[in-house]
Amino acid sequence: MIDPVSDLRSVREATDRLLTAAAGLDNAAVAGPSRLPGWTRGHVLAHISRNADALVNVLEGRPMYVTGEARDADIERDAPRPLPEQLDDLRASAERFQEAGRASGDWERTVELRNGVTDRAARVPFRRLVEVELHHVDLGAGYELEDLPKEFTERETEFLAERWSGRPDVPPTRIVTAGGEWRTGGSEGAPVTVSGSPADVLGWLSGRRDGSALECATGPLPALPPL
């Protein structure tokens, strides 16, 4: 069950973990490569900050980004900043998101995200939690998929399984981990069973691991579309 108030608390806790990790970097590390192709750690930190402001826009009824080009330009502008500026921006943008969440009225209303995607307002805090947790891993600063809270890993696995559900370009797939079982993909044909650790399954679904650590006894590992 979605509980936006609880998710806002989880966002704050995840942000505190991220800030602690980022504070242990230096300017050279911020300018170094992250785990995302073509992005430095500064790009990742800038993206996390600008995503907070974008989700404030969503909660307050404005377009998430003015344009996709403006989104990319803002990240490029902010990526080269020194660490103290990055940390200040992370804290301030995180607090703006918390304030917008606390002021949010009807959590059942429909809001619009990027590219015409809509969702319930109640899911926005969890969407923010995904950004903070997974991009903390992308930072390459010692936080791994295995370090993610168990509940988060299970919820995000379910969320991503839902994302690919009904897609004819993804074969019917049964996903099994110690944390649960999910179905995704299309409906034509016998399902492929994919199993592995919760972290490896989440890494595969989110495009952060290639799936080589997973077991797929009933056919080849399905190729997933880009997120």
State the main characteristics:
single chain, 227 residues, 50% helix, alpha+beta
Account of the protein in words:
With 227 residues, the chain is of the alpha+beta class. 50% of the residues lie in helices and 10% in strands. The protein has eight helices and six strands; from the N terminus they run H-H-H-H-H-E-E-H-H-E-E-E-H-E. It has a four-stranded mixed β-sheet with strand order 4-3-5-6, with helices on one face. A hairpin with a 5-residue loop joins strand 1 (110-112) and strand 2. Helix 1 (4-23) runs antiparallel to helix 5, helix 3 crosses helix 4 (68-78) and helix 3 (41-59) runs antiparallel to helix 6 (124-138). The chain starts with a helix and ends in an 11-residue tail after the last strand.
TL;DR of this structure?
This protein has 227 residues and is an alpha+beta fold.
Quote the distance from N terminus to C terminus: 24 Å
Number of separate helices: 8
Q: C-alpha Rg, in Å?
A: 18 Å
Pairing-aware structural class of the strands and helices?
Answer: alpha+beta
Helix content: 40-55%
Give start-end ranges of low-pLDDT stretches: none
List the helices and strands and how they pair.
Blueprint: H1 4-23, H2 27-31, H3 41-59, H4 68-78, H5 83-103, E1 110-112, E2 118-120, H6 124-138, H7 150-164, E3 173-177, E4 180-184, E5 192-195, H8 198-205, E6 215-216
Parallel strand pairs: 3-5
Antiparallel strand pairs: 1-2, 3-4, 5-6
Helix pairs in contact: 1-5, 1-6, 3-4, 3-5, 3-6, 7-8
